[in-house]
Amino acid sequence: MAREVEHHQTHYLERFLSDDCIATMALRSSDPIGLQSGVAKPSRNSRKKKKQKRKEAIADSPVISEDPVAEQCGNDSSGTLVESTSENYGIRDNGNVNRISCVGSASVVVVEESVCQNVCGFGELRQRNVIGGGEEMAAVASRAEEDRAEMNGSKEPLPPAQPQPVVNGNVANKLDTAESLDWKRLMSEDPNYLYAVHKSPAKYFLDEMYSGNSLRRTTTLGSEKERERVYDTIFRLPWRCEVLIDVGFFVCFDAFLSLLTIMPTRILIKLWRFLTARQFKRLSAAELCDFGCFLVLACGVILLGQTDISLIYHMIRGQGTIKLYMIYNVLEIIDKLCQSFGGDVFETLFNSAEGLATCSQENMKFWIRRFVSDQALAMAFSILHSFILLAQAIALSTCIVAHNNALFALLVSNNFAEIKSNVFKRFSKDNIHNLAYADSVERFHISAFLLFVLAQNILEAQGPWFESFLFNAFVVFFCEMLIDIIKHSFLAKFNGIKPIEYSEFLEGLCKQTLNMQTEDSKKNLTFVPLAPACVVIRVLTPVYAAHLPYSPLPWRLFWIIFLISVTYVMLTSLKVMIGMGLQKHATWYVNRCRKRKHHLHFD
């Protein structure tokens, strides 16, 4: 149906265009000058022909009545004004665009033509009124939409055109003009409008004086939660953080003393049993671990003993303050990397020892090769770490001995660089947990460095030096403690960590001290004291050698054995005191945490 309507409309409009073009060409050929000037009058015969053509066109107008739109317009008897427009009924051919409109009450079909210059030589806009009628334009519009939907397929029908006002019909209602926005009136009615343009300076100053807090525009009122955060940052968290780091320091010290006292005792007992029984038995996993650690310690002490400390000392002392700061920072970073990787290396060694102790006779060769390779790796890594710690201790000793305040420059630059690298970053709870343990290990390393400085002063210092050493040691420890407190306080503030979390960290460390099974063993404090032990033994050996009496060899051997025995007794006593103290503290703290739910207590 739509295609037939389009065909009839095309035929009808082509006839109109051809008649107009013929008439125009005839006028231009008969009087081109007059046509161009716009004053020429058409001849009588041409006017008659034109009228006759129009009459024939009107007589042929029933062709359009086949259009459903025209039929609805012809049957329209309502007095409402509706205009329906369909672009799908338009014709686009050689630039011609036609539109057919139907007005209900006027019973008029409007046909608009746009004739391009390539057809008739010039462009003009013409409107043809075709007499017709209609009853209900709403039905016409809906049916036209249905025809459009059929022709366009899946396209959604366009909404019908809105009614247009005409002279002989009902006039459509006009939209009321929106009231213009009066900005001054709006701002005067706004109760939050605080600044008036016409205020005097005196009135403005008085309003500022009596309007409340003078910093109300840049600050907000705090809550109870904000108050708790402030007091957590200043008081509660520093205390719990320092307790955690101190307990971690004593745990590291206990492991260091175990390496120097428990491990040699167990090795001597095993050798004594082997010599008395004269029968070799397969070693257990613990005994293999002890022999492996003893071998690493012995090799590290021997190689460090060949190192010329004075040469390294003068090489570092010859550098400027900036270079010294860079050297110390580089050594500290390498030390942290070695400490992190060293735990994995020795875990691998202990795993191989466990496998070698429990393997069958058929797999013995495989496990022996594996244990030997892991032992070689652990030995090389521990020796490297020992040299790094020795160089770091020499650098710190150079700063302490120097008279140009190099120690303070080193502490300030190094510690504030540590704050900058940690505080303004995002950390999770586990990362802060590991960072607190790393601070405990770092504090133990600083103690080993200060022991190195003490040994060097005993050997080489002249004049009163002990008071200066105590002051410098106090400054180093105080700065380290202050930096750790500031770092953890602001880390907890920026990452939303409450002080109770540090109590949980301490509980986990106490459970580790008691050898209690925890949920995640990766959260335990990992510390391998072999490298610090090599440095301490290397440093104290010249001190003992310097105080040996010049006597025959038997007496020298006697004094060596006597000093070693006294040192062993002192270290063993210290080990017992620290170990038992840690055990009692851990037991008390774990029981305390069990009694109180959610660890809501005040330390």
UniProtKB/TrEMBL annotation:
<dbReference type="Pfam" id="PF05346">
    <property type="entry name" value="DUF747"/>
</dbReference>
<feature type="transmembrane region" description="Helical">
    <location>
        <begin position="557"/>
        <end position="578"/>
    </location>
</feature>
<feature type="transmembrane region" description="Helical">
    <location>
        <begin position="376"/>
        <end position="394"/>
    </location>
</feature>
<dbReference type="InterPro" id="IPR008010">
    <property type="entry name" value="Tatp1"/>
</dbReference>
<keyword id="KW-1133">Transmembrane helix</keyword>
<keyword id="KW-0812">Transmembrane</keyword>
<feature type="transmembrane region" description="Helical">
    <location>
        <begin position="243"/>
        <end position="262"/>
    </location>
</feature>
<comment type="similarity">
    <text>Belongs to the TAPT1 family.</text>
</comment>
<protein>
    <recommendedName>
        <fullName>Protein POLLEN DEFECTIVE IN GUIDANCE 1</fullName>
    </recommendedName>
</protein>
<feature type="region of interest" description="Disordered">
    <location>
        <begin position="33"/>
        <end position="89"/>
    </location>
</feature>
<feature type="compositionally biased region" description="Polar residues">
    <location>
        <begin position="74"/>
        <end position="88"/>
    </location>
</feature>
<feature type="compositionally biased region" description="Basic residues">
    <location>
        <begin position="44"/>
        <end position="54"/>
    </location>
</feature>
<keyword id="KW-0472">Membrane</keyword>
<feature type="transmembrane region" description="Helical">
    <location>
        <begin position="525"/>
        <end position="545"/>
    </location>
</feature>
<dbReference type="GO" id="GO:0005789">
    <property type="term" value="C:endoplasmic reticulum membrane"/>
</dbReference>
<feature type="transmembrane region" description="Helical">
    <location>
        <begin position="283"/>
        <end position="305"/>
    </location>
</feature>
<feature type="region of interest" description="Disordered">
    <location>
        <begin position="146"/>
        <end position="165"/>
    </location>
</feature>
